[in-house]
Structure formats: C-alpha cells, structure tokens
C-alpha cells in the first residue's frame, strides 16, 4: 500500500482494528504550508468570531459598537487533527490568529486550562509573531514571545492564551495529549491578570486590574 507517496506499509491487521481500537490507528503523515499556515487533512475546524469573545476584551463598549454595526469579524481559526479522546493519543493542529485590535487591545484567543490539568502542550511558531500568556490557578503568570521557529513548552497546570501584536496573521502549531479536554470556565471566571495593549505604536503588557 502506498501512502502519500512517502513510504510503503502493510496494514492488514491495523486496518481491521482501526474502528474499534485506537491503538491500532494507521501511521500517516501530512503537511503544513509554512507560508500560509494551513494544515492539510485536518478533521476539525473551529472558527471564533468577535461575538464568541464577549467578556474577554476589557473594552466592552468598543466590542458592542462593532457588533451593533453588524460586523462580527473572525478573530481566529483552529485546524486540527483530533483522534479519539483516549489515553496515548495526540492532537495536533494549527491556530491562525488574525491581526487586529478591539480598542487598543490586540486580538487574542480565549485561553483555557486542560480539563485533565496535569497535561502539557507544545507550541511551535510558524508565521507572524505574538505572545503566549500563561497563568496558574494560584495566580502566577508569565508571558513569552513566539516567532517563527520558537518552540514553547506549556507545563501542566498552566492556562494558556495567545495574543497577536503583529500586523500579519500569527500562526502556530500545537500538540497535546488527546485525552486532555478543555476547561474554559475556570480561567474565564478569574480572567488572566495581564493584557496586551498598543501604546505609542508598541505592544505593552499591563495589569488588567489597572484598566
Ligand atoms: C489546544 C491549543 C490551541 C488552542 C487554540 C484556540 O490545546 O492550546 O489549539 O485551542 O489556540 O484557543 P482557545 O483558548 O480558544 O482554545
Ligand atoms: Zn491547550
């Protein structure tokens, strides 16, 4: 059997078992177009628009004004390969975070803990630039810059959010255990303590409580 023109494989047994037993999933490869940031063969796509991010940007009035005008811009898209949520599997995919601001606050993702808190994740910067903001339940926070080629480790127990402070799309690849799940509610309740806003044409990290 020929797969993607890359190699030959003999999968008689694995093929029979794929539908019932994840551990016999067939090996495969795929491609990310590094200029565009698109992932070939994804099986899941999530689009988040401004209306999905109500309550996340600090300037509620600016957000409502945009929506009132009938606009609801796409803030980010996630293209993923998501196998069954079983122990031993890996999810991976690409997030495309658009460039823009709500008032002076840069476009960002919602951010989440994993439901299985003891789960780590890897981010790899592919295109554009942004920040990776992380925070623990105890309130410890850290922020790091991600550019093309940056590999970032998100340790277990850290909520994570990305922020695009550049003037082009910020694209990164991620991978994490497929049984991790998502917990948006916990960090949504407390919020991230830091936000990134534009001041004199530059991104500045400030305390959200100061707004
Ligand atoms: C998944 C990983 C990313 C985010 C994506 C969107 O564990 O961290 O794929 O899901 O960047 O962010 P969010 O917070 O809306 O899921
Ligand atoms: Zn995650």
Describe the structure.
10% of the residues lie in helices and 39% in strands. The chain is built from three helices and 17 strands. The relative contact order is 0.17. The longest helix has 9 residues, at 60-68. It has helices at residues 12-17, 60-68, 185-190, and strands at residues 2-3, 7-8, 32-33, 38-39, 44-49, 74-81, 90-97, 101-102, 105-106, 121-127, 130-135, 141-146, 151-154, 159-163, 170-177, 194-199, 202-207. The termini are far apart. By secondary structure, the chain is mainly beta. Bound molecules: D-sorbitol-6-phosphate (S6P) and zinc ion.
SSE arrangement:
Layout: E1 2-3, E2 7-8, H1 12-17, E3 32-33, E4 38-39, E5 44-49, H2 60-68, E6 74-81, E7 90-97, E8 101-102, E9 105-106, E10 121-127, E11 130-135, E12 141-146, E13 151-154, E14 159-163, E15 170-177, H3 185-190, E16 194-199, E17 202-207
Antiparallel strand pairs: 1-2, 3-4, 5-6, 6-7, 7-15, 8-9, 10-13, 10-15, 11-12, 11-14, 16-17
Quick structural overview:
The protein is mostly beta strands and 211 residues long. Helices cover 10% and strands 39% of the residues.
Shape: globular
Largest sheet geometry: 6 strands, antiparallel
Q: Remind me, CATH topology? A: Jelly Rolls
CATH class: Mainly Beta
Strand order of the largest sheet: 5-6-7-15-10-13
**Small molecules (ligands, ions, cofactors) in the structure:** D-sorbitol-6-phosphate, zinc ion
